[in-house]
Amino acid sequence: MKITDIRATTVSVPLEAPLRHSNGTHWGRFVRTIVEVETDEGIVGFGEMGGGGESAEMAIRGLKPYLVGHDPTEFEAMRYKICNPTASLYNNRTQLHASIEFACLDIVGQKLGVPVYKLLGGKLRDEVQFASYLFFRYPNEATGEGEVRTPEQLVEHTRDLKERFGFTTHKLKGGVFDPQYELDCYLALAEAFPLDRYRFDPNSVYSVEQSIEFAKAIRHINNDYFEDPTWGLNGMRKVREKIDIPLSTNTVVVNFEQLAQNILNPAVDVILLDTTFWGGVRACHKAAVVCETFQYSVAVHSSGELGIQLATMLHLGSTIANMPFAIDAHYHQLTDDILVGGKMAYKNGAIAVPDKPGLGIEVDREKVRYYAEEFRRLGGYAYDRDPMRPDWYPIVPNDRWANP
């Protein structure tokens, strides 16, 4: 079996409301690039990557000379063709590789008639638990609804998500407002739902001192971990020495070299594996095995997925033993998906692992065409810009907080 073609289509799928974070905003939609890999046996596999537009589509097309004629079962050879570590000094193709690997896993699973989790050694759980992913939100531009700005709005939004999806773990994305204000919001959540579990992520924009102070103020809460409060391995290590809450990261340990450094000189307790940022499902699975060897727990990070990447997260999450935490997903913030039948369904805060061959999902080509037209109509947006504060940008550590 050989790869005969690679195609990329950028789509824009609406969110319930714009999502605010430490560097800017998701402007009311997710822009993703859908990747198709076709083989000479007529099997087509699907992948997905973040961002989009002509640059992403051109980057995917640029891989055709590397991959047309390649056997999609030869994953290690593909990794070195695309992500040779010395060549990657000049062309970092990690996320491109991830999208192609997703599609090749989909192809191989279809060829063998087995779900992707079988290619990873088999599943250990039939469903994967999810945390609610809570954001401060601007109101929906069309309806004026969906704003999350005050502690009261945050609690009501969380209550709604619990009723609709069954979440019992909650992650609050901070780094938008002054730390004291966000602390008040986080404490309000814990008071409203005292039996649930929590995690807080200010996206690395707190100083070491602010991080320590915040951690001490939340030590009585049912915290899974404190995610990326400050920047850098050394900064995280300084925080870790002064607090008694586990630290987690998806920013300072995102490859095997950084993982080795963290094991030799610990700065982070929980490694958040992202199937895009780490370069694919297989890289995440390898990293999870390394973490298991050294008694590190892992969870699965979200980078703003549609159903294709969500499927990779489900297959990965189902196979990892050392994952005692619910995983992250932006998925419930979407109003639709590019899958046949729409979004995958949550039940009691979990989503069932697909059992059909390959990734186990069916892409709705009509929806892809529709949301590709939406992208052409709306265009992209800068993730690290806030449309309501066009001249603003943060520094690290930040002191340019939004006014609540």
UniProtKB/TrEMBL annotation:
Mandelate racemase/muconate lactonizing enzyme C-terminal domain sequence ranges: 151-246
GO molecular function terms listed in the Swiss-Prot or TrEMBL record? glucarate dehydratase activity
Keyword Lyase on entry: yes
Provide the E.C. number(s) assigned to this enzyme.
4.2.1.40
Lineage: superkingdom: Bacteria
Question: What SMART domains would the database entry show?
Answer: MR_MLE
One Pfam entry for this protein is MR_MLE_C
Keyword annotations for this protein, in alphabetical order, are: Lyase
InterPro entries tied to this protein: DgoD-like, Enolase_C-like, Mandelate_racemase_C, Mandelate_racemase_N_dom
Q: Which EC class is this protein assigned? A: lyase
Specify the protein name.
Answer: Glucarate dehydratase
Q: Which organism is it from?
A: Paenibacillus allorhizosphaerae
